[in-house]
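<given_protein>
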Amino acid sequence: MAYSSREVPYEIADLLLRIVQPEPEDEYQALMEAEPFDEPRQDKQTTQKIREIVVDCMELLPDQDRFIIEAYNSERITYDELSKRLGVSIPHAWRLRKDAYCKLKVILLQNDSIIKYLGG
């Protein structure tokens, strides 16, 4: 499976919350940064693979959904700007964004690497 170097979305509900935080460079740093009684975060190498899987999964989305996620995360556009670009009302733009993330979540939860990473 080929991985892309594009930016990975930052808001995929709670599913990827752990991934977007800055990763420790190695296992030692992860242990040093861990809170008492919490598991240390994954190191940079591990989470980079997950990020690349997310990018690959985004390629499976319809063009409009991929555009919405990329525009919202890369450009940090507002719902007003998104609605103008899509030619829809602001509430409809909000629903389209929500639907795009739901579709991405479904695709991600079908990926064995993501399921394994999440402990499933």
Observations:
- The helical segments are 17-20, 27-33, 44-58, 63-75, 79-86, 90-108, 112-117.
- The chain has seven helices and no strands.
- Confidence is low (pLDDT under 50) at residues 1-5.
